[in-house]
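Extended Data, record Transcriptional regulator SutA RNAP-binding domain-containing protein
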Amino acid sequence: MIKPKTTKKDTRKELESQVDQFIKANGTIQQVNMGESGLVDGKYSTSHIGFNEPKQDRTPLNHVVAAIQQRKNSKTPPTPPAKKRPKKVVIYDDFGEPLRWVWKE
């Protein structure tokens, strides 16, 4: 059995009922300014930004790239495709009856 998809209307109703239950249980809703919840001490949290470490030196791999290029260029060129073989084709008369077979290239 396939579960029916929940619509936006159903999701809104569910959220509204959860908010109503929260308020009925003496819960309070605190209003905050837009974007304020993402701030730490009034500033954006930079702990998740990955620019804290110093730049690392890269290992030169020119000899590896040269070897790959040499292998790529040294491959034998592809062989031309084999000549097409003749095909056996049936010849029909005016009434659609087969008359004979003919080899066609």
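Summary. The mean pLDDT is 84.
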